[in-house]
């Protein structure tokens, strides 16, 4: 018995050390990376590059903010690529008939509806473990993506081809106060503030942590766990839509396959930032840090001439390591 | 009362055999559409495209039955072909092919380490390793398709036995028989069922759960590699875009055929029919000239429905107070 | 007739085992003679299952010696124990539901049995030897409880077991199936196999056993040949204990009917009807698996149950989930505080305010100062030992963790508080504090439904006791006037 107790203490301490390493190693590595880059490629500190970094903050940041809540609640949303593609295509297709503002509104609505559908499917399945959410959202990504393809008839559109007014999009992409306070950056800050307040100061936000911490205990204490699950998926859908509109404004092309890879990068940003995959804890602020780290990493590696494929590998490697440590510490949650 | 009972028994039977019935329905419908479905060429194409998926599915069946999930099979599929083609310039072709297959097994070994030894959640960690391997594929090929320098490469899978049946189909059948025998006649296979059926009971009975479950991941990587090589042989090209949608498709086919996510149930024949159904769906929709996007949508909806239904059925069982 | 050797098949000497907060086994010494059917009786928590798990290798003993078939056994794994000749048939069965009978019997021994043919042939042989006609290809999930039992017995035979331990074998058996079990035990005895028969069905103990051991609170009270034991004596030994001053004075403030449950029927429960009065502590006694927890989960809406009716203060209430229950004034302190009661990764404050948080919000925003005040109030009044309200509950002791759960529900000012094993794993001092708390709660006009496996606790604290047996209410008693033995009889059925 004593041996049993000692072993778990040792495991606990090992877990603490590992998680310390995980949290700070990533931070330390990337700071080191930045410093190395500055030395090797002083271009890093030039204005165009720094502006570039802030710009890259755009779409991924929105997706990651949405993903944060899903992960805190103990799930994962893999339908983001599909939602992005769908929102982009729907928005683009509706500019002609409805005008740009209505089109944007419609796009956002699509994201919300998609999130709602996801949550309904998961809830009706019992929503006890993450496994169901993983497969269902993975599958729904294909569905949303396919709908996008059908609407677009496989073709890619350009904003410039549209005869109606598309100035809103240019504003989203380029407007703002100077180079550093671009509209999308300000929009991001606004979303961040709202979501932070939601997360830390509202009752509904709090229930998300409780649901992610222990669904059974939360439910038995009278918390409407289904409502929190619905909320996080709708938030994720909403943020995906906002990010998609920003994306469309930036790249000005509406391609039905534009969403690829954003889901894994969003997950990566969230977990690198320190929010546990196992749920019950985390913060949007941490995610911002994660997005920053990933963006910096990407930027530095680009400047250092590392191929984009190596970068994909590196991202995969980091994801694997972070997930591994997360689950090790948790010791296999039910 | 008797009629009611009979109806109940009949409907339970139908649900059990739903996949076979669906296959039969599609085959019958295609007779009446006069769409060029029933030509030798088309049937061969159907079997060839099904073959690659079947090969992957064999290893995947092992993992599912044992209670695991491997989503990196798409990437392993890419990697093997690429490795083989690259190495073909340096070492003899058959050795290069073997190396390609070994690469899949290695990926499987790593997956097994995380899932079984470290008890990480299989879905998410294999997603991660999948990304890592995919990146590797892209790096090795600079994201461009590569061709083998050896011209006999393409004949390996497209070559015909008895002048009619493509080699790849022979390989598939051989593998099917092998895996069927493993699952039915070896202690390894039977223990997989035990572990997937009830991990605790299996462990209690002295079964080496860790070694066996780990091995299923190696097998899954192995078959992914073999399938990938076969595909590269078929198309005479190694490319880093293979296998993007494969994991999901293979899993759902297995589930629809009767190999449940829950573990401990199903087998090779069930999975094989499931894959056949999906390939049939694909092929017949193509013959009917249905737009590829509508096809994607149909497939996506079918996949979600299947998974949802599998989960829902388990939920109902749990809630039966 | 089997010869009773003078050597024991298994000899346990001074076995002790402690878990955090509770001494499960204290200096247990038992000898089971070869060829005997040896009964072990005791209430919940007597230590029977802990003892079995030590024998089978699931738990490690803290001290003492185990000698099996002449060999001293130190640490062992389950499969080693089985191979040595000691099989246990658990109440929940150790079978893989999705596999066939034959494969289950030879689970993990596919090779030695030369494949499927060999397995099914030998399985057929074993099943025939105990008179069982099941097809070896049937899936275990399709078997009845009695059939599953026979599969387990066949499994034990396949390992040439010398000792078979049966844990509550006759729950869920019909009288015909029970007869069959008697026959099989007779057959096993003839083969020279010893049996340990753990059961609460005293009739069966008297029918089948040669020797019987009575356990209580982790001790062996007595071991005697069954011929020297009486029914009355057995029950007394199972429950008898000196009632120390562990409990406060019984509260006496019972008023009119507060809660009425009618017609509760589920797969497990049958015809449950009862009332709870204001200011009353109503105790539920019963064996593990009798249905007590199922009853309260049904009332609380934690399980999906239909067809029953609930009346609170005379008004009909529909309770479909815990949220409804809480608004109707019912609170539940669940059995397993770690899995169901607490969010271990969250703070003391969060765990305490969880249930009433919503009430204190303003336009959906949390009222952090109220929450802090509430948490501090509860920590002070319940004497919860914690460095601060921000400490994670996972680092608190069991008793303090439980107090957090209790504090949470006290805040809700519920009319009916259901406490399922409220003092499990808690030290004596903390227990007394919780009893005092219970007294306070009912004196303020609320009611408590108390489920506990500790008979003295229920008998000393309750105003009224319901005995639950196999899904039915088998009796209703006044604990002050009814003898413990009488209550125990109804519990055992």
Structure description:
The complex is a heterotrimer of chains A (334), B (321) and C (493). With 334 residues, chain A is mainly alpha-helical. Chain A has helices spanning 2-40, 47-56, 58-72, 80-98, 100-124, 130-152, 167-174, 183-201, 203-213, 215-220, 225-251, 262-272, 284-303, 308-330; strands spanning 157-158, 176-177, 181-182, 253-254. In chain A, a hairpin with a 3-residue loop joins strand 2 and strand 3. Chain B is mainly alpha-helical and 321 residues long. Chain B has a single domain (37-308), classed as ABC transporter involved in vitamin B12 uptake, BtuC. Chain B contains 14 helices and two strands; from the N terminus they run H-H-H-H-H-H-H-E-E-H-H-H-H-H-H-H. In chain B, helix 5 (93-117) runs antiparallel to helix 11. Chain C is of the alpha/beta class and 493 residues long. Chain C is built from 17 helices and 20 strands. In chain C, helix 8 (231-239) crosses helix 17, helix 13 packs across helix 14 (398-411) and helix 14 (398-411) runs parallel beside helix 15 (428-443). The interface between A and B is large, with 44 and 46 residues.
For the structure shown, list the relevant keywords.
heterotrimer; A: 334 residues; mainly alpha; ABC transporter involved in vitamin B12 uptake, BtuC; two-stranded antiparallel ribbon; 14 helices; 2% strand; disordered N terminus; C: 493 residues; alpha/beta; Rossmann fold; 2 domains; six-stranded mixed beta sheet; 17 helices; 20 strands; 24% strand; globular
Summary of the model, kept short:
The complex is a heterotrimer of chains A (334), B (321) and C (493). Chain B is mainly α. Chain B has one domain: ABC transporter involved in vitamin B12 uptake, BtuC.
Total helical segments of chain A: 14
Radius of gyration of chain B: 20 Å
* Low-confidence blocks of residues of chain B: none
Q: How much of the sequence of chain B is in beta strands?
A: under 5%
Distance between the termini of chain B: 26 Å
Classification by helices and strands of chain A: mainly alpha
Unreliable sequence segments of chain A: 1-6
**Content of β-strand of chain A:** under 5%
Q: Say how many strands of chain A there are.
A: 4
Show the largest interface: A-B, 44 and 46 residues
Give the quaternary arrangement of the chains: heterotrimer
C-alpha termini separation of chain A: 24 Å
CATH class of chain A: Mainly Alpha
Q: Quick one: overall form of chain A? A: globular
Q: Report the C-alpha radius of gyration of chain A, rounded.
A: 21 Å
The ordered string of helix (H) and strand (E) elements of chain A is: HHHHHHEHEEHHHHEHHH
CATH topology of chain B: ABC transporter involved in vitamin B12 uptake, BtuC
Order of helices and strands of chain B: HHHHHHHEEHHHHHHH
In order across it, which strands form the biggest sheet of chain B?
Answer: 1-2
- In helices, the fraction of residues of chain B equals over 70%
């Amino acid at each position: 018995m004593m041996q049993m107790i000692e072993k778990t203490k040792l495991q606990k301490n090992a877990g603490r050390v590992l998680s310390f390493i995980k949290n700070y190693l990533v931070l330390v590595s990337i700071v080191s990376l930045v410093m190395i880059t500055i030395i090797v490629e002083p271009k890093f500190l030039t204005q165009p590059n720094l502006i570039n970094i802030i710009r890259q903050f755009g779409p991924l940041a929105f997706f990651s903010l949405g993903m944060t809540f899903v992960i805190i609640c103990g799930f994962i949303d893999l339908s983001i690529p599909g939602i992005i593609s769908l929102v982009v295509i729907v928005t683009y297709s509706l500019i002609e008939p409805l005008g740009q503002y209505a089109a944007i509104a419609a796009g956002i609505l699509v994201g919300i509806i998609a999130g709602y559908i996801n949550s309904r499917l998961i809830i009706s399945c019992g929503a006890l473990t993450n496994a169901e959410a993983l497969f269902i959202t993975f599958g729904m990504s294909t569905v949303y993506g396919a709908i996008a393809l059908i609407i677009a008839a496989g073709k890619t559109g350009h904003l410039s081809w549209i005869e109606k007014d598309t100035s809103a999009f240019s504003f989203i992409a380029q407007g703002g106060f100077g180079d550093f306070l671009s509209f999308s950056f300000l929009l991001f800050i606004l979303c961040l503030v709202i979501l932070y307040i939601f997360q830390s100061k509202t009752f509904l936000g709090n229930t998300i942590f409780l649901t992610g911490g222990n669904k059974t205990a939360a439910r038995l204490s009278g918390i409407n766990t289904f409502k929190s699950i619905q909320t996080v998926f709708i938030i994720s859908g909403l943020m995906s839509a906002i990010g998609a509109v920003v994306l469309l404004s930036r790249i000005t092309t509406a391609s039905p396959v534009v969403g690829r890879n954003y889901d894994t990068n969003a997950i990566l940003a969230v977990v690198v930032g320190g929010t546990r995959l196992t749920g019950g804890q985390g913060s949007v602020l941490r995610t911002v840090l994660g997005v920053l780290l990933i963006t910096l990493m990407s930027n530095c590696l680009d400047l250092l001439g590392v191929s984009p494929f190596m970068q994909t590998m590196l991202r995969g490697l980091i994801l694997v390591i972070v997930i591994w440590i997360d689950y090790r510490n948790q010791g296999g949650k039910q | 009362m008797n009629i009611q009972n009979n109806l109940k028994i009949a409907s339970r039977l139908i649900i059990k055999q739903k996949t076979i019935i669906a296959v039969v329905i599609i085959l019958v419908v295609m007779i009446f559409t006069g769409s060029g479905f029933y030509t030798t060429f088309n049937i061969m194409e159907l079997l060839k495209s099904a073959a690659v998926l079947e090969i992957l599915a064999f290893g995947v069946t092992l993992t599912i039955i044992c209670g695991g999930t491997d989503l990196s099979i798409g990437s392993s599929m890419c990697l093997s072909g690429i490795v083989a083609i690259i190495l073909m310039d340096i070492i003899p072709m058959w050795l290069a092919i073997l190396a390609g297959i070994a690469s899949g097994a290695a990926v499987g070994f790593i997956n097994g380490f995380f899932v079984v030894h470290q008890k990480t959640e299989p879905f998410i960690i294999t997603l991660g390793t999948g990304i890592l391997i995919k990146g590797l594929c892209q790096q090795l090929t600079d994201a461009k398709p590569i061709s083998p320098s050896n011209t006999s490469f393409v004949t390996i899978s497209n070559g015909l036995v008895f002048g009619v049946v493509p080699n790849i189909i022979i390989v598939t059948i051989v593998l099917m028989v092998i895996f069927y025998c493993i699952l039915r006649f070896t202690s390894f296979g039977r223990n997989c069922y035990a572990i997937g059926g009830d991990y605790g009971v299996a462990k209690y009975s002295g079964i080496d759960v860790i070694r066996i479950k780990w091995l299923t991941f190696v097998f899954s990587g192995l078959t992914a590699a073999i399938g990938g090589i076969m595909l590269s042989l078929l198309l005479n090209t190694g490319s880093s875009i293979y296998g993007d949608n494969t994991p999901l498709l293979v899993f759902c086919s297995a589930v629809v055929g009767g190999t449940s996510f829950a573990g401990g149930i199903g087998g090779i024949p069930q999975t094989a029919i499931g894959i056949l159904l999906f390939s049939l769906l694909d092929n017949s929709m193509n013959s009917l000239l249905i737009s590829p996007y509508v096809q994607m949508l149909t497939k996506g909806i079918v996949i979600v429905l299947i998974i949802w239904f599998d989960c829902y059925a388990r939920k109902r069982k749990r809630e039966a107070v | 007739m089997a010869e009773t050797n003078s050597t024991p098949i298994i000899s346990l000497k001074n076995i002790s085992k402690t878990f955090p907060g509770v001494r499960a086994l204290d200096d247990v010494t038992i000898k089971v003679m070869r060829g005997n059917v040896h009964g072990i009786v005791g209430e919940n928590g007597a230590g029977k299952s802990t003892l079995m798990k030590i024998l089978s290798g699931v738990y490690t003993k803290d001290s003492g010696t185990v000698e099996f078939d002449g060999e001293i056994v130190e640490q062992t794994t389950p499969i080693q124990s089985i191979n040595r000749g000691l099989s246990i048939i658990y109440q929940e069965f150790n079978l893989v539901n999705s596999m066939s009978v034959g494969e289950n019997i030879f689970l993990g021994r596919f090779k030695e049995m030369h494949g499927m043919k060999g397995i099914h042939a030998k399985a057929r042989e074993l099943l025939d030897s105990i008179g069982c006609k099941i097809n070896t290809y049937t899936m275990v999930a399709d078997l009845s409880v009695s059939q599953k039992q026979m599969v387990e017995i066949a499994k034990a035979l396949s390992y040439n077991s010398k000792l078979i331990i049966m844990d509550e074998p006759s729950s869920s058996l019909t009288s015909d199936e029970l007869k069959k079990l008697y026959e099989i035990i007779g057959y096993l005895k003839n083969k020279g196999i010893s049996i340990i028969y753990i059961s609460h069905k005293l009739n069966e103990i008297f029918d089948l056993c040669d020797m019987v051991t009575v356990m209580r609170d982790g001790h062996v009270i007595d071991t005697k040949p069954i011929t020297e034991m009486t029914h009355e004596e057995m029950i007394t030994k199972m429950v008898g204990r000196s009632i120390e001053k562990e409990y406060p004075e019984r509260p006496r403030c019972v008023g009119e009917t507060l809660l009425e449950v009618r017609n509760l029927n589920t797969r497990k429960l049958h015809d449950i009807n009862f009332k709870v009065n204001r200011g009353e502590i109503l105790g539920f006694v019963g064996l593990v698996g009798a249905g007590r927890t199922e009853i309260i989960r049904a009332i609380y809406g934690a399980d999906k149950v239909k067809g029953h009716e609930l009346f609170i203060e005379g008004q009909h209430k529909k309770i479909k989930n815990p949220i409804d229950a809480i608004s109707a004034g019912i609170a539940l302190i669940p059995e397993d505080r770690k899995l169901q009661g607490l969010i271990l990764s969250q703070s003391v404050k969060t765990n305490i305010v969880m249930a009433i948080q919503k009430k204190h919000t303003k336009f959906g925003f949390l009222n952090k100062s109220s929450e802090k005040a509430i948490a501090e109030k509860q920590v002070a009044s319940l004497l919860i030992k914690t460095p601060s309200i921000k400490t994670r509950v996972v680092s608190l002791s069991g008793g303090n963790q439980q107090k957090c759960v209790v504090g949470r529900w006290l805040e809700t000012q519920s009319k009916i508080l259901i406490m399922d094993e409220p003092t499990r794993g808690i030290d004596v001092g903390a227990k007394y504090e919780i009893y005092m708390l219970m007294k306070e709660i009912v004196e303020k006009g609320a009611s408590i439904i108390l489920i506990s496996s500790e008979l003295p606790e229920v008998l000393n604290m309750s105003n009224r006791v319901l005995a639950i047996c196999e899904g039915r209410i088998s009796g209703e008693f006044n604990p002050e006037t009814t003898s413990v033995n009488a209550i125990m009889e109804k519990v055992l059925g």
